[in-house]
Request: fold
Amino acid sequence: MPKVYLAGPEVFLPNAVEIGAAKKRICAAHGLEGLFPLDKQQPSLPPAELAAAIYHANIGLMLSADAVIANLTPFRGHAMDTGTAFEIGFCAARGIKLFGYANVGRLLVDRVPHTLTDGVRLDENGWLVEDFGFLENLMIEVPMREAGEIFTTEAPANDPLGNLTAFERAVQQAARVLTVRA
Reply:
C-alpha cells in the first residue's frame, strides 16, 4: 500500500489527533496509508530537545513516504503554513510526489492586499505581489502541478482547516497516480 505523508497546519488544532485519524481513514478507503505528523508522539522533553525530536520524527515519516498530500490553506496570514512549505520543499528535492489542496479558492494575488502601480502589483511595503494565477507561491505550486491538479473548496470561515472535501479529492488523485506507478 503506498504511503502518503499528510502535511499541514492541522497539528496545531485542539482536535489534531481526531483530524489526523479522519484523514488516515480517508486514505485507507482509497488504498493509501496515511502518515500523520503526530503519529510519532514524542516523550516529555525540554523544548529544544522536543523540537529536534519532532523534526527528526517527521523527516523519518517523509522519507518513508511515496508521496505528500499537503494542506495549502492559508495559516496565520495570507499564505500557507511555513512548516508545511518546508516539508513540500524537502520532499520535492528528494523526488517525492506532491499533491495539494486548500480550503480556499481565492488565488494568492487576491488574498494579499495590494495596489496596481504602473501595471505592477505592490503590497503595503512596496514589494511585488506574485501573480501567476496560482493559489500559492510558484515554488510550492509548480512541483504540485506536475503531479496533477491542486484541489480547492470554500470551507466555512469558522473552520478553515477542518473541511476534508478538497483533501479527499487530493487523496483520490494521489491514489490514481501512485497506483499507476506501483
Summary: The radius of gyration is 17 Å. The chain has a mean pLDDT of 94. The helical segments are 16-29, 47-64, 82-93, 108-111, 138-145, 165-181.
